[in-house]
Structure formats: structure tokens, C-alpha cells
Specification:
single chain; mainly alpha; 3 domains; 8 helices; elongated
Length: about 170
């Protein structure tokens, strides 16, 4: 009888394998340090960006800082001073000498509107500059540092420059 009781034990599924979580590498530089060290320690900065790419956050911070600077200068100088500067430049221009006073005022008003609206477009200009600069750096990096016609599918030339036909 004891043997029959041992055979009646039900089968149990083995426990699931434990999932090993890989330790996440912490960035060595903060976003602000990345912005500053790009000029003083570019090699360390690019190593850190390769480990943890955070250039998008740095780009957003830079776009906000440039926009704040643009609005700060415009507020400090004031619309009257900007209008006076534009008027002085019109007076120096020989092509504007033939314009009547009303046409000059309309042209100055148009310039004031353009300068006002362009302040709001500064972040877009910064992002477009980043994209163009990134493409140029990628193209130069891949053209100068790699042997021509030998490319890996994971490098930036094959991914970006190859698709753009550069």
C-alpha cells in the first residue's frame, strides 16, 4: 500500500526560469553638462551619448534657451528702438530714397511684423539647424573616417546618407 500512495503524487510544473535584468547604465553627464562639455570634452561627451543618447533633450533645452534669449533681447531693446533702427537703415539705403513717407512706414510696419513673428519661429529654426547639422556631420564622418564602399548596415552612412543618395 505505501507504494501505491507514492505513485499517486500529481505532476507539478517546474517554476518559470528567473528573468535576469541587465543593469541599466546611468549616464555619466547630465543634459546641461552635455551641452557644456560638447565644446570642452567632445570625446567624452560623444562616448556618453553613444551609451545613452539624450541629444534630443539637449536640443529641446537649447531651443528653449535660444528662444528665451531672443525674447529677452527684444524686450530689453524694445519695439521703439527696433523701429528706429529699421528707419535709420531705410534712410541709409539709396533705393529707399525714392519712396514716399507712407511707403516707408508700410515697409517698416512689415519689417516689425516679420521680426515679431520670427521670434516665435526660433525653436523651429533651431530644430531645422540641428537636423541639417546632423546630416552634414554624418556625411563628413562617414566619408572621411570610413573606407569608401565598405559600410556596415548599422552605421550612419548606410542608414541615413545612403537613403538620401549622398
Amino acid at each position: 500500500m505505501p507504494d501505491s500512495q507514492e505513485n499517486n503524487v500529481e505532476w507539478e510544473a517546474p517554476p518559470p526560469p528567473s528573468i535576469k535584468e541587465e543593469p541599466t547604465e546611468e549616464p555619466q553627464m547630465s543634459e546641461v553638462a552635455t551641452l557644456g562639455n560638447i565644446y570642452f570634452e567632445p570625446e567624452n561627451t560623444f562616448r556618453d551619448l553613444r551609451r545613452k543618447p539624450r541629444f534630443v533633450i539637449a536640443g529641446i533645452i537649447l531651443a528653449l534657451l535660444v528662444t528665451a534669449y531672443t525674447f529677452g533681447v527684444a524686450m530689453k531693446v524694445g519695439d521703439d528702438a527696433i523701429r528706429s533702427f529699421i528707419s535709420d537703415q531705410f534712410d541709409k539705403n539709396p533705393a529707399a530714397a525714392n519712396m514716399d513717407k507712407d511707403a516707408k512706414e508700410r515697409a517698416i510696419d512689415l519689417q516689425m511684423k516679420i521680426s515679431t513673428y520670427s521670434r516665435f519661429a526660433v525653436p523651429v529654426f533651431v530644430i531645422i539647424s540641428f537636423l541639417i547639422g546632423g546630416l552634414l556631420v554624418c556625411h563628413v564622418y562617414c566619408s572621411v573616417l570610413y573606407i569608401p564602399n565598405i559600410h556596415c548596415e548599422t552605421d550612419c552612412h548606410a542608414i541615413i546618407c545612403g537613403r538620401l543618395g549622398l
